[in-house]
Write a structure and sequence with these properties.
200 residues, mainly alpha, globular
């Protein structure tokens, strides 16, 4: 029963539609009706500006981090569930949020938050990689997919060094999620029509 409760909490954390709620509460705007319609940091930056975009991105990151850290709470201290499984449920919650008709974001920030909570040096590597690629390409989608590839490579190397099979499998799953959610972006990148950020 404890495991089910933890998984449910992780999913609900991930389901918090920060872009939707911040847009409605502070900007009187339903972000789903503007830009790409996506409930994520990128569309928030595009539609509502830097302040809102940064706030949404931070919240989305922390959703994954808090989910991974749930077993550290005293009430769950004896739980045997692997924290990365909780992170995966937070990612699912972000992509298919119960609070937003199961239509969410692409889970890049939340996946990063899972890494932050589980292996912060890994998070630093992918975060810096993301910023470098974004600075060069000006495309969040391309940066996200490059980071997914880097993450898979790093997790394989980390597995060979430490035997952490769980992280290698989970990063592989996250990468699949990210590429799947960016199908339309891949088409636009090939066609040369992918929007580029103007705030960096």
């Amino acid at each position: 029963m404890e495991i089910i409760i933890l998984l449910a909490i992780a999913y609900l954390l991930g389901s918090i539609p920060s872009a939707l709620w911040i847009g409605k509460l502070f900007y009187n705007t339903d972000i789903r009706q503007h830009g790409s319609g996506n409930l994520g940091g990128t569309n928030t930056f595009r539609v509502l500006g830097k302040k809102a975009g940064l706030t949404v991105t931070i919240i989305d990151i922390l959703k994954g981090t808090f989910a991974v850290l749930l077993p550290l709470l005293p009430i769950f201290s004896e739980s045997t569930i692997h924290p990365l499984l909780l992170g995966a449920f937070a990612v699912l919650g972000h992509m298919f949020p119960v609070f937003a008709n199961f239509k969410g974001g692409k889970a890049v920030a939340t996946s990063g938050g899972v890494l932050l909570g589980y292996n912060w040096p890994f998070f630093i590597i992918v975060f810096v990689t993301f910023l470098i690629v974004l600075k060069i390409s000006k495309m969040v989608s391309l940066s996200s997919m490059i980071v997914a590839i880097v993450g898979v490579i790093y997790s394989v190397i980390y597995y060979l060094r430490t035997g952490d099979l769980y992280m290698m499998i989970m990063i592989g799953i996250f990468a699949i999620f990210i590429f799947y959610r960016h199908r339309a972006n891949i088409t636009r990148i090939k066609a040369g029509t992918e929007p580029k950020v103007k705030w960096l």
